[in-house]
Each structure stands twice: as C-alpha cells, then as structure tokens.
C-alpha cells in the first residue's frame, strides 16, 4: 500500500487577505507615537476611533466609517484628558458610546453625536476616578450593559457600574488586587463570568469577574506571556509572548488546568509584540506582530493537535496597531469573515484589510456565517451585579433578517416619547393662559412634568464641570427673576381688574 499524505479538510484553508484601495483608506491621520503595547484603534459599524499624537494633553479621532480619503488635519477630536490617551474601546451595545483611559489616571466615557463630531468634544458623559496611577487598559463586559473594567499601573483591576446619575464616579463596584505588577492584557469568556489576564510578573491568571476570586494561575518559566485570549466556549486559553531565548511564540492552555501547556510553538525571532485575534464563529485565530507587515492565521479545534496553520497574509507596510470590525459590520455579500484596520505610522495611513473566503456563488453562505453575538445586552448592570450570568443575545447576519433593536435606538425612542410628552404639556399650558382655575389645577397636577431652564427633568443632565455648574446657576437665577416679574405683572393686572369692577359697580349704583 502506497503512503499518502493526510490533508485536513477545512472550508477556511484558502482564506486570503484583500487590502483596500487607496480611496477606501484613511489618509493623513497623525497616529500616536506611544510605546504602549495596545491596538490604539477601535471600530464599530458606524465609527472608526484612533488615538492621535497631539501636544498638551491626550486626544483621539472619531471618524464616520465611510469618511475615507484624506482626513482634514483640523478635524474635531475628543480631547478631554490631561495626559496621553492609552486605550479606547467602543461600547458593544451602543455605537455612539466610547470609553478612553489616560496617563492622567482617569477613565472617561464619551457620547458621540449621531452624525459624528462637528467640534472638539471636551466634556465627557462619565468620569471614573479611582486609580492612583495611569490607566493602561479598559474592557467592556461582553453581555451586561454599562459594566466597564479598567486596570492601571497601580496593579489594580476595577469594576465600574455606569448606571448611575453621578457624572463623576469615585468608588468602583469592586477592586481586584491579585496582581503584583502591571496587567498587560485582559480577555473575557463568552458569558463574561470569567476573565483572564497576563502580567509583567510572567503569570497568567483566571479570575471570576463578579467576585474577583482567583481561580487558577499559570507560571511557565519558558514562556513570558504578553497577551492572552479566552477562546470562546472551547475551554482553552491562548497566550502570545516570548521564550527564554527571546523567540516569539504562542502557547495554548487548558482552561481547567494551567499547570502544563497543551501546545507551545515558536514563530520567529522578531521583537515586536504579537496581537492575537480570535473569531469564535469560524474558530479562526489571527496573529499580527507589532512592526510586522504579515498576519498569520490558524484554525483551532478541540482535538489534537488543536492548532492548524492555514496560511499567511504578507504586506510591506508594517502595522503599529490594529482595530477589528464586529461581525455585524462585515460585508457578507463578498464572503468577508474578518476585517482589520491597520495603523501604518510611516505613512499616517489607516488601511482596511478584509479576510475573504473564496466562493463562486454570490448568495448568502450560511455555513460561514452562523448566529453571532449581536448588539443587544443580555443583562442589565444590576442583574449582573446581583449574581446572574447569561450568554450573548445572538443575531443572524443574513441580509433582510430581523436585526435586534440596539440599545442606542431604544434609548432614543424613550427620549423621543419623553420629549413628545413634554411638548404636549407645554402646548396645553400655552392654550390655558386665560387664567382659569381648572387650567391652574391641571398645571399643579402635572407639576412633575414642569420645564426647568428650557429642559424637562428627564432630559436635564446634571452639570459635569464647575463652569457648567456656574452657567446652570446663572441661568436658573435669570429664570427665577423672570418668573417674579411675571408674578408681579399678574398682581398688577388683578388689581387693575378689581378697580375696574369696583368702578363699574359704583357707576351702576349711581344710575
């Protein structure tokens, strides 16, 4: 019997990378020169955000996703930090909400207007003050709304609940203090009940998200981990780093036993940090090196040898960082299964890079687009904090399928209903200016919907800065003065009417 080589069948064996044309890139972007080992870029189906180089504080740029071509050097930025911005992340359930952390030891959450920035944004929606040193990494909870994790150079991991009225939050929900050095990366499980971290002390830790309890710890002398990923529901972790001979390597771990690696593979002798990206829908792993032009991709299976090399995308343009488009923002008509946004510092360029499965048919390919995590939260912040864990709310990528309503659209609808109710109340008040007692009683009964400083109670946001507080105070004083004048005018009018009635009675009596 003749020997035949054994080839593994895979629908992703021939995936290839397709770089965008010059017209579809973002040109003239002053990308940050920071040496922090972060991706410096965050993407969603509406906006692209990238940390930029600037003097006097930190800033990042937010561009509409279709705003390609040459970028105006004076384009408005988000510039409310006093120190350099180190990391940015979009809210997975609100395409207009982004969080940023900085060297000024704060985390800020920003609300981006519907059509993008028309002027510099300097006032944040929330400011989180709890870290004693600069904050280098932030992550949103994958299934609970408005839960944010942050970690800084004080070696603390803090959990924040943004569902509160205060614009400045100084007390986190919980502080996790298991690390003895700077946390380099953080990755959540599918339902967000666990997260894994890598640290400069060379240890990988698996922690319960809510309680902060340390479950397992891996310490491998032959592997210095810099980044870690929890591989979906496969009960495995993947870390990238360097060996004791400074070779770049990736290591696969059993989530339930971190004592010995499952797979340990050396890649090359370069010095740049390796960024791993995992797609749980296709089980594909992408590894891109900082300063490299190539991207390796693999397929992960639950059986030995676990990691299967597919191929490699090569380019002469080195990347400093990379953003990743969520699955709901991909072009399914061209069989696109992943999309990177490469930050090319030497050309001040952001280049979209699509990973495509070659198919002849132009119809929707259900086998490469299973149900994926959508943009609807499975839990509220209070439900998660009370002890509930749920997997993500799934959605279909098939064109024409019912897309779940996003958290932002639901919020807009609630605000629209509230604004309509207040508008109707104001119109009723204007119609009832005849001073009748019934109208006055109606106004008193609806006093809870009164308008303050031109805004309803439900739409009136609290002041965020001292200047804004002074402006609100002066505006309120002006409102009080105007109301007093109206009351005085009403009293004068009442006296005039009383005098006219008295004169009429006297004239009738004389007749």
TrEMBL record:
Q: Which InterPro entries match?
A: Coronin, DUF1899, WD40/YVTN_repeat-like_dom_sf, WD40_repeat_CS, WD40_repeat_dom_sf, WD40_rpt
A single GO molecular function term of this UniProt record:
actin filament binding
Instruction: Please indicate if the UniProt record lists Repeat as a keyword.
Output: yes
WD repeat boundaries on the chain: 78-112, 128-163, 176-217
Q: Name one Pfam family in it.
A: WD40
The keyword Nucleotidyltransferase appears for this protein: no
Print the keywords alphabetically: Actin-binding, Coiled coil, Repeat, WD repeat
Instruction: Give the DUF1899 domain ranges.
Output: 5-69
PANTHER family reported for this sequence: CORONIN, CORONIN-2A
Q: Which family would the database say this protein is a member of? A: Belongs to the WD repeat coronin family.
**Name this polypeptide is given:** Coronin
The organism named in the record is Tetraodon nigroviridis
């Amino acid at each position: 019997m003749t020997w035949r080589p054994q080839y593994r069948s895979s629908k992703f064996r021939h995936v290839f990378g397709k770089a965008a044309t010059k017209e579809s890139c973002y040109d003239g972007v002053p990308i940050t020169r920071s040496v922090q080992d972060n991706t410096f870029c965050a993407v969603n189906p509406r906006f692209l955000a990238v940390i930029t180089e600037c003097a006097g504080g930190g800033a990042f740029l937010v561009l509409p996703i279709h705003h390609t071509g040459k970028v105006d050097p004076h384009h408005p930025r988000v510039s409310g930090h006093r120190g350099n911005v180190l990391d940015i992340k979009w809210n997975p359930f609100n395409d207009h909400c982004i969080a940023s952390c900085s060297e000024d030891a704060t985390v800020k959450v920003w609300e981006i207007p519907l059509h993008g920035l028309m002027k510099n944004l300097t006032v944040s929606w929330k400011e989180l003050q709890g870290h004693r040193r600069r904050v280098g990494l932030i992550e949103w909870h994958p299934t609970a709304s408005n839960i944010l994790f942050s970690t800084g150079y004080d070696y603390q991991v803090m959990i924040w609940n943004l569902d509160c009225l205060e614009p400045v939050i100084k007390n986190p929900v919980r502080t996790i203090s298991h690390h003895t050095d700077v946390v380099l990366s953080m990755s959540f499980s599918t339902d967000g009940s666990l997260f894994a971290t890598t640290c400069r002390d060379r240890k990988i830790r698996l922690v319960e998200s809510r309680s902060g309890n340390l479950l397992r710890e891996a310490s491998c002398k032959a592997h210095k981990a810099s980044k870690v990923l929890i591989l979906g529901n496969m009960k495995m972790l993947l870390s990238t780093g360097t060996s004791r001979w400074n070779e770049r390597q990736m290591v696969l771990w059993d989530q339930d036993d971190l004592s010995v690696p499952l797979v340990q593979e050396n890649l090359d002798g370069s010095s740049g940090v390796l960024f791993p990206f995992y797609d749980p829908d296709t089980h594909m792993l992408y590894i891109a090196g900082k300063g490299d032009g190539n991207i390796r991709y693999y397929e992960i299976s639950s059986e030995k040898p676990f990691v299967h090399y597919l191929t490699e995308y090569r380019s002469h343009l080195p990347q400093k960082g990379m953003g990743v488009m969520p699955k709901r923002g991909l072009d399914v008509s061209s069989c696109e299964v992943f999309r990177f946004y490469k930050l090319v510092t030497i050309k001040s360029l952001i280049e979209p890079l699509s990973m495509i499965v070659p198919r002849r048919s132009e119809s929707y390919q259900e086998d490469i687009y299973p149900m994926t995590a959508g943009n609807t939260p499975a839990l509220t912040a209070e439900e998660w904090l009370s002890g509930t864990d749920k997997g993500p709310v799934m959605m279909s990528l098939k064109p024409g399928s019912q897309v779940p309503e996003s958290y932002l659209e639901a919020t807009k609808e609630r605000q629209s209903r509230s604004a309509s109710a207040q508008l109707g109340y104001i119109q009723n008040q204007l119609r009832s200016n005849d001073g009748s007692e019934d109208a006055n009683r109606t106004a008193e009964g609806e006093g809870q919907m009164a308008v303050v400083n031109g805004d309803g109670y439900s739409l009136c946001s609290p002041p965020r800065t001292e200047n804004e507080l002074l402006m609100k105070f002066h505006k309120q004083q002006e409102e009080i003065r105007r109301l007093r004048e109206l009351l005085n005018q009403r009293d004068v009018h009442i006296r005039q009417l009383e005098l006219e009635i008295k004169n009429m009675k006297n004239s009738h009596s004389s007749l």
